Amino acid sequence: MKGNSEEYRLKFFLDRDYLRRECKVCRTPFWSKDKTREDCADIPCSDYTFLDMKEGSLNLSMSEARRKFLDFFRRNGHEVIQPKPVLARWREDLYLTIASIVDFQPYITSGVSPPPANPLVISQPCIRMDDVDNVGITFGRHLTTFEMGGHHAFNYPDKFIYWKDETVAYAKEFFTEEMKIPEELLNFKESWWEGGGNAGPSFEVTVGGLELATLVFMQYEIKGDQYVPLKLKIVDTGYGIERLAWFTQKTPTSFHAIYGELVDKFVGKLNMPRLDNGILKVASRYAGRIDPDLPSTVEEHRRQVAQTLGLPVKEVSDELTRAARVFQVLDHTKTISLMLGDGLVPSSGGEGYLGRLLIRRALRTLKLLGIDVRLSELVEMQIEFWGKDFTQLYRNRDYIIDAVNLEQEKFREVLTKMTAVANSFAQRKDVGVEDLIRLYDSHGIPPDLIADELRSKGLKVEIPHNFYSIVAKRHQSAPVKKEWETTKLPLEVVNQVKDLEPTEKVYYQDQYARKFEGKVIKSIGKYLVLNRTVFYPEGGGQLGDQGWITIGNERIKVVDTQKVNEVVVHVMEREVDLKGNETVQGEIDWVRRFRMMRHHTATHVILAAAKKLLGDHVWQAGAEKTPEKARLDITHHKNLSEEDIIKLEHMANQVIDDRRPVTPFEINRTEAELKFGVSIYEGGVPNKPTLRLLDIKDWDVESCGGTHVSNTADIGGVKIINVEKIQDGIIRLEYVAGDVVSLYARQLEDKISSLASKLETSPSQLEFRLNKLIEENEEMKELVASYRRQFLEGVERVVELRRINEITLALLPTMVDTELEKEAIRRLTSKEKVVAIHVSQTNGKLKVDIGTSRDLNVSFIVNNLVKAGAKGGGKGTFASLMMEGKKEEIIDIVERAIKSGYS
């Protein structure tokens, strides 16, 4: 869809004598007071002529540009809102915060929840990976991290704030009064915006080739091919803070404006000559001519720069390539700092995948530059430079540095595998894009680093110029399932109950209630819906309740409880035939439920303890609460030490002993985020305007729909029973609580008693007996080693030696000591032209171990044995096979192989 011309014909333009004309290059309409302008003042229709303008030369740093933007709109009635993290953890569909409007989607933009202020202004750090391959090449047009200054107004049917004319008027006033740009230089280019399921007309504000802001008027919801008018009309603006700084500084590139003195510090740290700002200034002026989707335009751009400066093309190209790589490292290390500072843990999936991708791309760029430097040193420079603007960098410095160092070590390990990985493609003729992506996903090897290895094997390798963008796009969003799609109920049951009235949830009114009375709403075979229930349906990692439903004098087992939307479904052990409005009684299995309540509340206690002990980067990655035990998966970059586990358990039990109240309460979504932050979504993002939060006094506040004890003392105590790394960046904790701790202790006691019995001692003497056995075992090892040495010193006297041509065949006697056998083979084959063989009986078959001296190869003998029915193999100087037959027959095959193979 494209807005018609009336969408853009504003009273503001007509009153102030703006003219609408069409750009002679791109044919896009734009509005301007400059009656002589023929183009839209945007790239590629115009070069970056702002670099030569005197207008707007205010020399604003990033901090100053941000402050000027926020202060202007604050003075004009907008409340300044604190930015959210760059990890979009209040969204289930996105990993990264890609725009300021993302902070308010989908609940505020859809009208479900109120905005935190109206109107409001924000400067939101954003991360976009779509154009990661273009960073540096366009000298600042593309960045992975940038700040979007947004002023937003939410117009309700009964409450109008402001709309198009006022938004454009604000832009005019900001740019002319604050940025000191004459109004005649402003151009409002007509455009159309779509994002996050919404759409609307927009204006791009351009000056001297640079787009400084986009003014979006969100007024449609996209449903398939339809554009449905929104009830809310939303002003969604994006002012580029980096571009405001660049415009006022007129530096050679936008990187100089963003990073200031850090550019030269990075160059110095990389032990490189200073960048040639003369070449860069000309390169930036023509940078708008580069179309990253057409690599040929990069070459044409460099020829243009060389021609303008009267320099050789190669000299210009080499300098711009070097500069682009420095800028990539600058950009990537800032983004890495922000990602890790807001809690990202590098891994092989989800948001962690994107973080690792950027870290490895930065390391790959350093390798291309031929620089051996710790990436963490560059990241630490970013922390020092940006820490006052983004205090989470200071707060989480230790974790950020530790995580980056660990990732660099992993990357070095990856590079050692390049030759072996390249060898796996030996039988191929070429390596395609999908092969390169699979290679990167499975091994983490950048394609341009393994390309030479592949080409040396005669393979054709074409690396797309936007390889990392392709990979990032595939991983930038998360699949989201509707709640009822995850239920264990049959689809026909789901369809029959999903539109019923919500069930009254007695388990929230009184979490200690065990019995209730309810009326039948729907009975479908063994699936029963009542108007009210104390049965908790499976959700939030907590299993559904079990118990009994009493119908008249009959008591029927409830084996599970599930939920569809807000309808609770009781799963009976058999079919029942009930009529609507019939009254039944229900009772839950209280022992089972209470154990899960304890485990669930313990999960909240342990998660908060982990964050306090290990750092803000800890985030819940999964959880399960059963009557037998609970598990919690957390994001963390390395294994927990024994000391960490002891501290974690101690912290949790201290909170339990402290008898802290555990209070569930409901609160408006917007208010909850403002008051407690997005950490309330540790356990998931509820699809509701009103959230149910669980408050453990002075310890943790988190959104949760589960059932809980009312005081931490009711947990009784916790014992961590297992800690393991289940995948890269994910640590699993398993623990028990309450009376299950004593059951776990009883199991341990039974194991100890069993061990003591096997060792013919008592549990109290087990440690003494075990130490004695260890001592005896060490003595036995030394004795065995002594016997082995004696045997090996005279091994040639106990083997049968046969001479076959120039080869000596050594036949070992049957030995049960496999280590001794292997060492004997090594000793015998240390001389030239020797084949040693050992044959033993194993599970009714013969096991054949063959060794050869280094001047021979075992493969020929192996092939002959395989032809005779042997299974197994080997290469080089050793092989091991299994086969049927007699020992003499096997030796005969080996002798014939030696005669024919080594003659």
UniProtKB/TrEMBL annotation:
GO biological process: alanyl-tRNA aminoacylation
Cofactor note: Binds 1 zinc ion per subunit.
InterPro entries: aa-tRNA-synth_II/BPL/LPL, Ala-tRNA-lgiase_IIc, Ala-tRNA-ligase_IIc_anticod-bd, Ala-tRNA-synth_IIc_core, Ala-tRNA-synth_IIc_N, Ala-tRNA_lgiase_arc, Ala-tRNA_ligase, DHHA1_dom
Compartment(s) where it occurs, according to its Swiss-Prot or TrEMBL record: Cytoplasm
UniProt-recorded Gene Ontology molecular function terms: alanine-tRNA ligase activity; aminoacyl-tRNA deacylase activity; ATP binding; tRNA binding; zinc ion binding
Catalysed reactions, as listed in the record: tRNA(Ala) + L-alanine + ATP = L-alanyl-tRNA(Ala) + AMP + diphosphate
Swiss-Prot/TrEMBL cofactor(s): Zn(2+)
EC number: 6.1.1.7
Transmembrane segments: none
Principal location class: cytoplasm
Domain Alanyl-transfer RNA synthetases family profile: 60-747
Enzyme class: ligase
Residues at which Zn(2+) binds: H600, H604, C704, H708
UniProt entry keywords in alphabetical sequence: Aminoacyl-tRNA synthetase, ATP-binding, Cytoplasm, Ligase, Metal-binding, Nucleotide-binding, Protein biosynthesis, RNA-binding, tRNA-binding, Zinc
GO CC annotations, alphabetized: cytoplasm
Function summary: Catalyzes the attachment of alanine to tRNA(Ala) in a two-step reaction: alanine is first activated by ATP to form Ala-AMP and then transferred to the acceptor end of tRNA(Ala). Also edits incorrectly charged Ser-tRNA(Ala) and Gly-tRNA(Ala) via its editing domain.
Family recorded in the similarity comment: Belongs to the class-II aminoacyl-tRNA synthetase family.
Domain text: Consists of three domains; the N-terminal catalytic domain, the editing domain and the C-terminal C-Ala domain. The editing domain removes incorrectly charged amino acids, while the C-Ala domain, along with tRNA(Ala), serves as a bridge to cooperatively bring together the editing and aminoacylation centers thus stimulating deacylation of misacylated tRNAs.
Protein name: Alanine--tRNA ligase
Underlying gene: alaS
